[in-house]
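Researcher: I'd like a candidate sequence for this fold, 225 residues long. If you have to choose between options at a position, lean toward the conservative one.
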């Protein structure tokens, strides 16, 4: 029986899709070892090494030697380079910076504060209305995750005992947030208002502070005896 010839175009597309998945995994999970990536990509260890080498050669990932927790040898983990980080969109970053600079120049810091307050008010209305459609705190957090993920924040939910972690692996307005910290303060307040008095929200990881992502811990608020 004759073997079906391999289509080079299909092979290239599949390799490209695998490479994009690998980049996505490193973006959402942080640095990972080769042995971790293979099962997550559902490909062989050799195929994983080939994909890694291609991305290294392209300047999209780089290896970091991680100290061993015990007596074993240090391990190497792969992480995104700045070039790879730039592949994930920062929405209209250059235009946003120009607008922020122009507002500061014409209206001063008070003008920026008014813009941030206006955005905060609009987001608060949207988030509060969406969360009002469900009853449990967990469902409300899931609603927030859905809104943020749709907005490009690569948001996910993780349980932490009786708490929940709202994880944002990407910030589509990072450049604007770096230029104006008010955007970050606004987000935290919007989350708190949307979830109401039944929960407290704290930011435990912050991209602008040097962390690789933003993480918010949502904790049920215990009623006073």
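Model: Candidate sequence:
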């Amino acid at each position: 029986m004759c073997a079906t010839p391999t289509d080079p175009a299909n092979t290239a597309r599949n390799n490209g899709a695998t490479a994009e998945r690998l980049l996505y995994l490193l973006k959402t999970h942080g640095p990972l070892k080769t042995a971790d990536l293979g099962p997550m990509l559902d490909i062989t260890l050799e195929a994983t090494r080939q994909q890694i080498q291609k991305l290294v050669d392209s300047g999209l990932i780089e290896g970091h030697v991680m100290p061993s927790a015990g007596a074993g040898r240090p391990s190497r983990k792969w992480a995104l380079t700045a070039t790879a980080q730039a592949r994930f969109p920062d929405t209209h970053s250059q235009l946003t910076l120009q607008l922020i600079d122009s507002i500061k120049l014409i209206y001063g810091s008070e003008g920026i504060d008014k813009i941030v307050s206006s955005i905060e008010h609009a987001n608060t209305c949207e988030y509060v209305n969406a969360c009002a459609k469900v009853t449990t705190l967990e469902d409300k957090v899931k609603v927030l995750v859905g809104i943020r993920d749709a907005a490009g924040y690569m948001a996910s939910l993780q349980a932490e005992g009786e708490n929940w972690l709202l994880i944002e692996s990407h910030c589509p307005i990072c450049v604007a947030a770096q230029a104006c910290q008010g955007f970050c303060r606004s987000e935290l307040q919007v989350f708190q208002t949307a979830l109401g008095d039944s929960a407290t929200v704290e930011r435990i990881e912050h991209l602008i502070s040097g962390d690789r992502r933003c993480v918010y811990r949502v904790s049920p608020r215990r009623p006073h005896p």
